[in-house]
Amino acid sequence: MPDIRAxxxxxxxxxxxRNLFVLETVCVAWFSFEFLLRSLQAESKCAFLRTPLxxxxxLAILPFYVSLLVGLAARxxxxxxxxxxxxxxxxxxxRALRVLYVMRLARHSLGLRSLGLTVRRCAREFGLLLxxxxxxxxxxxxxxxxxxxxxxxxxxxxxxxxxxxxxxxxMTTVGYGDMxxxxxxxxxxxxxxxxxxxxxxxxxxxxxxHTFSRSYSELKEQQQRAASPEPALREDSTRSxxxxxxxxxxxxxxxxxxxxxxxxxxxxxRAVPT
Length: 274
Prior knowledge:
By secondary structure, the protein is an all-alpha fold. It has ten helices and no strands.
């Protein structure tokens, strides 16, 4: 925000700047408290810190405290203008990491969790897609450079590396229009790159889509099972009922055997004369 940056350069802090600082402090304090509680409840601290979402939490929380320490260390009179310039650069870099707060939504969003699971399961497909794009880019960039520089006399395609940018945005069907082939051979190359980009991206995308759909269904079923405790209660009641029936059968069987033995002895005594 330009007005807050101007105040920061002048060393001032308006009520608006102070309110934003207080709001960020409250949010970071809540995030830190939550992270501390989850770390205390974790059985394995090493496994807890290796979790990707927890790593994102650390990268999102630490910049606030580091920026506070850097700001205190770079106060006027402590180290001069050079220290202030370095501290300002460090603070800007750390503030850029605060956008990782958005990734915390993955804990509560089924769609973001499905996306992360899909990326993890389809690492090979993503690598294959990147390989296709790189091969096609290495093929069409020199061709369009040759067609435009030698036949079209255009200055947009000044070199082959500069033509790589055009190849990428053409094969991904973005088409910014900052580099456009004008000659007929260049347009033919452009048409070939666009059609090949559509086909090359369509092959892995179908597999990625099916994996995303399957991951979404699995996470949704897990969420429904965790939210509804009725099946667990039914299983517990069934187990308790079966255990009770087994105990009753076991307690009744000796009595039944004893009564049967007694009745058979009475019949035998009646039948045999004394």
